Amino acid sequence: RVDAGGKLPDSIPHHSPRILRVALPTPLRRLFDYRPLREPPACGWQPGLRVRVPFGRRQMVGVVVECIDSSDLPPDRLKPVEACLDATPLPEDWLWLCRFTARYYQHSLGDTLHQALPVLLRQGRPLAGRMRERWQALPPSAEAEARLARAPRQAELLAMLRQHHHGLPTQAVLAQSFSREQLLALVDKGLVERLLDPLTAAETGAGRLLAEPALPLNREQAQALATVHERLEAFHPCLLHGVTGSGKTEVYLQLIEAVVARDRQALLLVPEIGLTPQTLARFRQRFRVPVVALHSGLTDHERLDAWEAAASGRAPIIIGTRSAIFTPLARPGVIIVDEEHDGSFKQQEGLRYHARDLAVTRAKHHAIPLLLGSATPSLESLYHAERGNYRHLRLTRRASRHAPARLELIDLRGRPRQGGLIPPAIEAIRETLAAGHQVLIFINRRGFAPTLACHACGWLADCDHCDARMTLHRQPPMLACHHCDKRRPVPDACPSCGSADLRPLGSGTERTEETLAALFPKVPVHRIDRDSTRRRDAFEHMLGQVRRGEPCLLVGTQMLAKGHHLPHVTLVVVVNADGGLYASDFRALEHSAQLLIQVAGRAGRASHPGRVLVQTLHTDDPHLRMLAQQGYDTLAEQLLAERRAAALPPYRFLALLRLESPKEEAASALGGEAAAMLRHWVAAHAPDVSCLGPVPAPMERRQNRYHLQLMLSSARRSQLHAACAQLTAWLEASPEARRVRWSLDVDPQTL
Ligand code: ADP
Ligand code: ZN
Ligand code: ZN
């Protein structure tokens, strides 16, 4: 057994190692030994080379991570590598990051490498194969040209190439009825050079960097930029803490400009919802150099091109969502994480990494600045800023005239609701529309109603597979579980008592949309949620209409709340703010405060001041009042104090073992054994680690499987990691663990 992350790779090329240690895409946290090919690759055997190897009855593509001379197995029992797929190793910075990630998140290195590669590279596609041939005339040489006397076509071809400063691609030459043989003959004679260009050829170096001038910065922006700029050659983490609309993006743009002007690359991570054509357009408008975007809409080929462009250094600016953190960079210059508090930076399944946290590690490794931007920073980042680990840069002023709107709490209790809205909210909507402005109604629930209820017997539409209610949808009509995606037709009569008095309970986006359409028949109502925007272009089309500014109503979930610039919205109504107030998850309050502030930030971005109405059953809730009256920063201070008192992150580190099985007993037996083993082990080896559970997960039954969890916590990273390593090793060796699905989540975002 090999500790997959323990040793640093031997980076010296090794021409004749006896054994190659290969990481393969399996969940097993170990490496596999193979014999090298008799002929080593031209670069010598090195970590980072992809190889094709036999594995069981299959073949797999793996990555060499060590070249060594002895194995636990005798060399004659080792199978040989079938082929080496690379002429040179995959980028070192990429391999380093993957090794770190696998070790930190206690994940299989082979699977980590696999996930961090574009699909085509996983499949063994060559890296250098995607090139365009170009033929360029070399400086004239009388001697060489003399040899063309008896080859008039070659002379013509040379003359043609000389007219093209940057040479011609093969296609263009063939199109003029010249042949490849003629081209190669000219190469042989030393008159023409054959060049290979990647498909995403960058028109860099063509003079000016900017396509439009940068904005003159205000004092705070200038100061923030200057602080980062002070030390572009060192690890230099900064938190850019600025209210929505305070010009953070402008700071990113100018920082990127400075970095690219020094011929370095900038990597910008944005939340999943934030990588809109609008965001990209803003960056592409500013720069003349290519801006490469990495998002889920790319084809495999486009993704590989982008990866190569970043790895080779041709792409100076790379913008991507979470997984873009694994993009190799030839000349890293800065990493920026926009909306650093956003939950989408954490991958919630498989390799459970946090892209923001990896960004910190990566910037440190490269010794470059790191900029984390947010209007509502995560408590983790605020904590680091307070301790001086990060520079705390503040932008308090909005570029537009108006300060961000205050939250006005309005009491839901004892008031009639229509589509979830109470009379004062409806009145405010009416006034805003009459003034010719737009209104955003935020409701964190898609579908028509959270569930269907029988008024005769109290029956509720429960999911058969989960401890959850099924959501009622009207477009199209069905009951759907948002946890397991199970669907059923809407019953005509109560399945329990036969009564026909079935009524929707509560409101979702569809119902609010319907109500508003009835209340304001002359005003267009746009609903924006996952159901209404399955087609991205439909979404952009609708936003385009909204940006033209006619009065309209926007009803949406957080899809709408995040990132979109909606200059004509002057009223925001939050249908229900109570979801996160009394949730069991310790981060729920933080996340719902961030979301409320973000939603509120949609109001009054342009020339008109905004108003934000927040409907709640808990107008007296101290946290909600603090948020409304004193703002996010004060609440965040308070929440940090509570976290400290409760010994929760960021004051302590957590890891969560999740167990699930169709059989409750199987999961709880394994959980119990694991906990007993772990308690025994930590007592001797990691006394600071405490172990809680196993306890049922918040939704114990989901998709007909029982979910349990075991929580580890420690103020010491090293001890927590040692305990996690012990736990995963024990589970991998345990025969019972084969019948129970388990996963370990280091730094879980939700419990
Ligand atoms: P944030 O990213 O903090 O939400 P943006 O960078 O998107 O803020 O800026 C909000 C608006 O203010 C944008 O329309 C932007 O063009 C404008 N803006 C930003 N900085 C300046 C500046 N220094 N001068 C004038 N307008 C600015
Ligand atoms: Zn009934
Ligand atoms: Zn379900």
Automatic annotation (TrEMBL):
> Superkingdom, according to UniProt?
Bacteria
Q: Which PANTHER family match?
A: PRIMOSOMAL PROTEIN N (PTHR30580:SF0)
Cofactor binding: number and manner: Binds 2 zinc ions per subunit.
- The entry's Zn(2+) 1-binding residues are 454, 457, 494, 497
* Keyword Glycosyltransferase on entry: no
What are the protein's UniProt keywords? ATP-binding, DNA replication, DNA-binding, Helicase, Hydrolase, Isomerase, Metal-binding, Nucleotide-binding, Primosome, Zinc
Name the Enzyme Commission number(s) assigned to this protein: 5.6.2.4
Residues annotated for Zn(2+) 2 binding in this entry: 463, 466, 481, 484
A GO BP annotation: DNA replication initiation
The record lists the catalysed reaction(s) as:
Couples ATP hydrolysis with the unwinding of duplex DNA by translocating in the 3'-5' direction; ATP + H2O = ADP + phosphate + H(+)
Q: Give every Helicase ATP-binding domain span.
A: 229-395
Which organism does this record belong to? Billgrantia pellis
The Swiss-Prot or TrEMBL record lists the needed cofactor(s) as: Zn(2+)
Query: Which Pfam family is one of this chain's hits?
Result: PriA_3primeBD
Helicase C-terminal domain span? 489-647
Q: Which InterPro entries match?
A: DEAD/DEAH_box_helicase_dom (IPR011545), Helicase_ATP-bd (IPR014001), Helicase_C-like (IPR001650), P-loop_NTPase (IPR027417), PriA (IPR005259), PriA_3primeBD (IPR041222), PriA_3primeBD_sf (IPR042115), PriA_C (IPR041236)
Q: What does the similarity note say?
A: Belongs to the helicase family. PriA subfamily.
EC class, as a word, reads isomerase
Q: What is this protein called?
A: Replication restart protein PriA
Question: Which molecular function terms from Gene Ontology are attached?
Answer: 3'-5' DNA helicase activity; ATP binding; DNA binding; hydrolase activity; zinc ion binding
